[in-house]
Specification:
Elements (H helix, E strand, L loop, with lengths): L6 E4 L3 H15 L4 E3 L2 H10 L6 E4 L10 H8 L4 E5 L4 H9 L4 E4 L5 H14 L4 E5 L3 H13 L3 E5 L2 H10 L3 E7 L7 H9 L8 E6 L6 H7 L4 E4 L4 H27 L1
Parallel strand pairs: 1-2, 1-3, 3-4, 4-5, 6-7, 6-8, 8-9, 9-10
Helix pairs in contact: 1-5
Length: about 260
C-alpha cells in the first residue's frame, strides 16, 4: 500500500527504534531508516535525493540536545511527527507553532500503536478531499493550512453559492467544514440545499461557529449536519472530529458496497 514511502526515525532509544521498526514493517511493510544521532539524521538526508515522505523525531537527540533535530526537519519542510517523553503545555504550543503533523507521547504502553495510527492516517489522508466554506479569508487560510499539514487535499469557498459550485464539479469531496454565519447563504441553508441531493453516505458536514448560542449545534444537526464545533477549538480536537467523520463515511460506504454485492 505504501510502496515508495521513505520514513526516517530520529530516535536514540534502542527499545523504541526496535519496537517502531518492527511494528511499521508488520503493518505497512515499510523499512524505516533509523538515525540515532543528529549527525546520522543529517547524513541520511544528504546521502539520498529521494524525498523523505515523513519523519518521526524525538525532540532531543545526541548532538542535538536542545531540539536542533526538529528545527532541522522543519526548516527542510519535511512532514514530522514528534515522538517524545518530555511534554508540558508550553512545549505543546511550541510544537504546534512549528506546523508539525502530530505529536505522540511515550508515556503509555499504547504509544507505538498510536504512532502507527498517526503514520497511517498521514500516508492515506491524501485520498480525502475536504471543502472549507467561510466568508473570512483568515478563517479559510487557517483551516486549510491545518488540513494540508495532515496531508488532506483541500478546496476552499468564500460563500455558500461558491461551495455549491465546487461540490457539483468535485464529487470526490467527502467532507465539508462550513461556517454558520455567511452573508449569502448561511450554514444551515447551505446544508439543507446540499442534503436535497447529497446524503451523509456521500458527504459528511461539520458546522463551525463563533457564536455563544449553544442551540446552534442542535439546529445545524437537524438541518442535516453531522457534527458541530464552537470556535475557538484546538488543533487536536479539530483533527479528531475530522477523522471521526471520515472514518464514519468510509464505514457507511463499505457497508453499502457489501449490501450491493450481497
Amino acid at each position: 500500500m505504501f510502496a515508495g514511502a521513505r520514513i526516517i526515525l530520529a530516535e536514540d532509544s534502542n527499545v523504541f527504534t526496535s519496537m517502531i521498526g518492527k511494528r511499521l514493517k508488520e503493518l505497512f511493510d515499510i523499512d524505516v531508516e533509523i538515525c540515532r544521532s543528529f549527525e546520522e539524521l543529517q547524513l541520511s538526508y544528504d546521502k539520498s535525493s529521494d524525498p523523505i515522505t515523513l519523519a518521526i523525531s524525538n525532540i532531543n537527540l545526541p548532538g542535538a540536545e536542545n531540539g536542533e533535530a526538529l528545527e532541522y526537519l522543519v526548516d527542510l519542510s519535511i512532514p514530522t511527527i514528534v515522538f517524545t517523553g518530555t511534554f508540558h503545555e508550553g512545549m505543546r504550543d511550541k510544537l504546534l507553532a512549528k506546523d508539525i503533523v502530530d505529536y505522540i507521547l511515550k508515556d503509555n504502553i499504547f504509544a507505538v500503536d498510536l504512532l502507527a495510527e498517526s503514520i497511517c492516517r498521514f500516508l492515506t489522508n491524501h485520498r480525502h478531499h475536504v471543502l472549507i466554506v467561510d466568508d473570512s479569508a483568515t478563517a479559510r487560510a487557517l483551516l486549510s493550512s491545518r488540513l494540508k499539514r495532515y496531508n488532506f487535499r483541500v478546496s476552499t469557498a468564500e460563500s455558500g453559492a461558491k461551495a455549491l459550485e465546487i461540490l457539483k464539479a468535485n464529487r470526490d469531496i467527502g467532507l465539508m467544514v462550513t461556517d454558520y454565519n455567511m452573508p449569502d447563504i448561511d450554514g444551515f441553508e447551505l446544508t439543507r440545499r446540499i442534503r436535497a441531493s447529497i446524503g451523509s453516505h456521500e458527504l459528511r458536514i461539520i458546522g463551525v461557529s463563533s457564536s455563544s448560542n449553544r442551540l446552534l449545534s442542535a439546529r445545524f444537526l437537524k438541518a442535516g449536519g453531522n457534527d458541530f464545533m464552537l470556535r475557538p477549538f484546538i488543533d487536536e480536537e479539530f483533527y479528531c472530529r475530522v477523522n471521526q467523520n471520515l472514518d464514519t463515511l468510509l464505514q457507511i460506504q463499505s457497508m453499502r458496497k457489501e449490501r450491493a454485492v450481497a
